[in-house]
Amino acid sequence: MPDLTRGRRLGILAICCTSLLMVALDTTIVNVALPAIQHDLHASVSGLQWTIDAYVLTLASLLMLSGSTGDRLGRLRVFRVGLILFTVGSLACGLAPGLGWLVGFRVVQAVGGSMLNPVALGIITNTITDPRERAQAIGLWGGVAGIAMSLGPIVGGALVGSVGWRAVFWVNVPVGLLALVLTTLYIPESRAERPRRPDAVGQVLVILLLASLTYGIIEGPTAGWGSAVIATCFVVAVVSLVALIAWEQRRDDPLLELRFFRSVPFSGANLIGVFAFSAMSGFLFLNALYLQDVREFSALKSGLCLLPMALLVLVGAPISGRIVATWGPRWPMACAGIGMLAFGLMFVRVTATTSMPYLLTCYGMFGAGFSLVNAPITNSAVSGMPRAQAGVAAAVASTSRQVGAALGVAVIGSVVTSGVHGSLRVGFVQAAHVGWWILAGCALAVSVLGILTTGRWANGTAEQVAVDLRPEERRIPASTS
Questions:
Q1: Residue of 262 and 342 predicted with greater confidence
Q2: Above 70 in pLDDT, residue 161?
Q3: Is-above-0.90 flag for pTM?
Q4: CATH match for 6-199+251-469 among 3.40.50.1220, 1.20.1250.20, 3.40.50.720, 1.20.58.340
Q5: What DSSP line would sit under 49-96, residue for residue?
């Protein structure tokens, strides 16, 4: 890739962050529209879960394939295809005549989205070569993800309240078209020096694993946890996991590079991503039902209630990126878990008549914690890794987030749904207690893992993995701690 001016590099970073903003925003903007979708399309609670999880599950299934495809065929080419699919899928979602159509079009959206995030991060890591500038760029990248997820409910509430739920999808169309034009004008093509071969078997096994596990969790309360269908789903998930590990160990160019997980920071970052985004997605799903079905707030008022969370993420995410660039990822991860843990413990006390100041304080506490987590996750995942495999490493890290988001909605939503007897308005608050306790447990795991998987020894394992993978290649320098 030719040397680029600082202005050109910043422009490329802005374009890549715009794509992340769209994809991440779409994982949360729909939550506030769920009651309106439920009423308009006559959807069940499990149908609402699928509206969310069809998107994040497809993302999780295809991110690794898209990352390696971008490294192989050209990151610019794959990035443009992703923008086109995401934009067309968004338009179709806004025109969906029924729930089944909406879920299907969400899959199209996610196929395009899977080609954006890991490929864009691969573009960033190969465009910005100065270690400090790259660390700052990755910090900004991670911060944008958190900001987008926090702004989603507010933007969604405003759109649903003024235009209707279909507008939460249509808003992506002009942004996607603009990003497509700017991408064509300013982003140069790049690819890995040694392309990785496709792994069709590994891809099928990943899809089987995630789809069967998620289906079993979401449909368990309705079909019965001991039913043959649900039991079969869990058996398929276990068999797929075992087969995936066995298959990937035999390949020279695996879809899932298992050697990455010998890096303690990489493994820790992925586990933290699962727990943090499980907490985030579970919170947004339950909170939308609580505010609109229990408290009977409008979509706009529900979105505005989350303003303290969004503001603290806006402030905290860039700060987290600077802290990571200067001192490393340990303390941002630890403090992120503490903030979200405090939220979970506080929200266990929430009732159908809890005062607004208490709710706003809870939301602010969650935002303060979550704002710190994205930058250190992203930085730990790519630190020390060969640049030629930046797309693959970034894709695994992005996959962990989406797996967490899917499991958060599936697990917390299903556990709470199982405890509701009668209407949501009557039984939701009591049934939701176990959901808030699960969220608190996820937050505690974030802090503990953040401390245990960072530091001098952990960074040494990351450097060793990079040497084992490609000793002759330049590596992305590991973070300090």
A1: 342
A2: yes
A3: no
A4: 1.20.1250.20
A5: HHHHHHHHHHHHHHHHHHHHHHHHH-HHHHHHHHHHHHHHHHHHHHT-
